[in-house]
Amino acid sequence: MSTSLSLHHLTRPSNLPENAPLLIMMHGYGSDENDLFSFATELPEELFIISVKAPYPMAPYGNAWYTINFDAERGKWNDKEQAESSRDLIAQFIDEAVAHYPVNKDNVTLLGFSQGTILSYAVALNYPEKVKNIVALSGYVYHDILPEELETQDYSNLDFYCSHGSVDQVIPVDWARQIPNFLKSLNIKHHYSEFPVGHGVAPQNFYEFKNWLSERI
């Protein structure tokens, strides 16, 4: 575990001594860096895996990438400034990790769940030069934290694996179903799958994204 970088994190070193493909995991709202790290032992050994903790502590426990407010007048709304701050912090962390660990800066994958996925989309679409593959589990595209001129960006290096539970009660599957057309409109390579689960990762979902990732690292 290292604390010299800007985000608290856990690491699983690669079996490669240098130039390892880097996988950065970002947990969901109210969780922490231990959550997705449970996947680490099951993923390809050549991956250098980092699981990061979101910067905003929640009560009584857990962390968030940005606050979700529940307001009688406004309904449910996101703290956009915090979301933008976390987006940029992750981009900064990628640079720090590449400088600090024996990894390949041209082979960086983001793996997010829920709010971590929302941030993964934002980082990839704002900083496409920093990432290559994105595993986007049970999330959606938060358009307010994306670049205004999306159509003018070069996203040719990006490749997305997107999945969602068809009975997700936290993030409606209808939101996720808009993602393939959105990515297609930007000429971004992508794969989209649904699984008959709620807000979580089914075993067959895990094996599918593991195989997808193995083919790309």
Helices, strands, pairings?
Layout: E1 9-12, E2 20-26, H1 34-37, E3 48-52, E4 56-57, E5 63-64, E6 68-71, E7 75-78, H2 80-100, E8 103-113, H3 115-126, E9 133-137, E10 159-165, H4 173-177, H5 179-185, E11 189-195, H6 203-214
Give the amount of beta strand, in percent.
25-35%
Largest sheet: 7 strands, mixed
The number of E-state strands comes to 11
Helix content: 25-40%
N/C terminus separation:
24 Å
Rg, Cα atoms, Å: 16 Å
Order of strands, widest sheet: 1-3-2-8-9-10-11
Query: What is the H-and-E element order?
Result: EEHEEEEEHEHEEHHEH
pLDDT averaged over residues: 95
Global shape: globular
Decide which structural class fits the backbone: alpha/beta
Please work out how many helical segments DSSP would assign: 6
Unreliable stretches (pLDDT < 50, length at least 5) are: none
Which key phrases capture this entry?
alpha/beta; 217 residues; seven-stranded mixed β-sheet; two-stranded antiparallel ribbon
What do you see in this structure?
The chain has 217 residues and is of the alpha/beta class. Helix content is 28%, strand content 27%. The protein is built from 6 helices and 11 strands. The strands form 3 sheets. The protein has a 7-stranded mixed sheet, sandwiched between helices.
